[in-house]
Amino acid sequence: MSDVEEDSDHEDSFLTIGFESSSLFKDRNSKFHGYAFPVQNEEEIKARLDQLRKQFYDARHHCYAYIIGRNQEYFRAVDDGEPNHSAGDPILGQIRSFGLTNCLVVVIRYFGGTKLGVSGLINAYKTAAQLALESNEIIREYVMSQVKIKFEYPQMNDVMKLVKAYDLTIVSQELHLDCRMVLSFREGLEGLVLETLEQIGGLEILNS
After folding, report:
1. What architecture is the 13-140 domain classified under in CATH?
2. Which of 19, 14, 69 is nearest to 41 (CA)?
3. Inter-axis angle of helices 156-165 and 190-198, to 10 degrees?
């Protein structure tokens, strides 16, 4: 797991995980397989859950939790037959403790013949989720904005200086005597980028 520097100025960003990761936690012969996925929406979440249910079709419980949205506004915790709040909530708590969003964690249990009790279940689901997240990479993603511009070819040098200065991404471009370009950038830079574009004589902002 990589450390991501905390920055209170990053209002246009959020923390998530970089890839799929897994873990295995055992307690009194019960096995808890943990999986962590980066996700963007509920359709991706459903697809991941369906995939795991097919892969682990003989498991007794598929418990999970997720948080999506730049401000962690959408979340859910599911116990899937375990005692109330003994599985989904501990998983959700781990996602929150890592400060993540756009993240799904699933813990699949194979019963080992010995009941663990509610406290044992809470610890097992929490630990499996924690281990899956610890084996991942925490990354910072930015909320992006786009602008479409139109300019004449002689202005290309000024436009490219702006692209380099603010580390903009050229999404698409049409380079003729009359050029068009779509630029992508961090949402927090929108005011500054638009102001600088407006200072380039003859350049037209088609949308913002």
Report:
1. 2-Layer Sandwich (3.30)
2. 69
3. 160
Least confident window among 5-19, 103-117, 153-167, 182-196: 5-19
Structural domain spans, the chain: 13-140, 144-207
Strand bridging mode 61-68 / 138-142: unpaired
Q: Where are the beta strands (DSSP E) in 20-168?
A: 21-27, 30-38, 61-68, 74-78, 103-110, 138-142, 144-152
For residue 2, pLDDT over 50 is answered with no
The answer to whether the pTM exceeds 0.70 is: yes
SS3 139: strand
Query: What class does CATH assign to 144-207?
Result: alpha beta
Q: d(Cα 105, Cα 21) in Å, to the nearest integer?
A: 9
23 in Cβ contact with 135 (< 8 Å): yes
In whole angstroms, what separates CA 42 from the centre of its chain? Answer: 12
Question: Predicted confidence band at 1 (pLDDT cuts at 50, 70, 90)?
Answer: low
Question: Facing residues of 67 across strands?
Answer: 75, 103
What is the residue type of 177?
L
At 177, is the pLDDT very low, low, confident or very high (cuts 50, 70, 90)? confident
